[in-house]
Write a structure and sequence with these properties.
By secondary structure, the protein is of the alpha/beta class. Helices cover 35% and strands 18% of the residues. It is built from eleven helices and 13 strands.
Amino acid sequence: MKFTDQLNRSINLAEIPKRIISLVPSLTELLCDLELETSIVGVTKFCVHPSHLRKQVTVVGGTKKVYVDKVADLYPDIVIANKEENTQEDIEAIEQFCPVYISDIKTPDDTSHLINALGDIFDITPLTDKLKQQLNVAIPIDIFDGQTVTYLIWNNPYMTIGGDTYIQSILSTIGLRNVFDHLDRYPQITIEDLKATSPDYIFLSSEPFPFKDKHIEELAGHLPQTKIVLVDGEAFSWYGTRLLKLGNYFLDLAESVHNL
């Protein structure tokens, strides 16, 4: 069986994969929600959803440093990776002994494309079709009114998100305008950049850097007119089924920000 991943690479499989290794936390959760948990034999140390899984299967390292020998010892039928989260070096090493499906997610439409592919690979299209329908209504549209925002993912130096990221697509969907959407990927910025753009909001993500209240105080001293809040990084960056488990998170966020 021949499939194409999201980098347009050919993936050849002799049969439906029975032993899966996931190197992407959000996709580990997605695979479990597609009733494939019992087929997962390896995950990364960052695969925290579902919380019990890391105790039941082999941890093969982190997303950026995979222990390739551990992967090989598990005899996987397929490894699920991501262009952004995993390194080319690790992927090329794993491909010497196992097919690797590489995802590349920048928008919710990319997530739908991936779910289609998983449906075909694992022969579970009824499940994936149902899941796509649920995801289509998971993100509330235009609950903000075009206010400007800077979304920070790192401290010292400050790093934000550009216009070619999944986070950007979520911000845009809920009605916010990223002041750094003209930049690519995850650019470094300074306090001076923040002052010059003077966003209505600054969102401080819980991951990969765990911003705290003290960081709100630090930034507020420089930008007293900007509303600065801590946000759930998983809500904005975990493509897959995380969106279905957030309840009214985005609506509650909009209300709390409006009331600041």
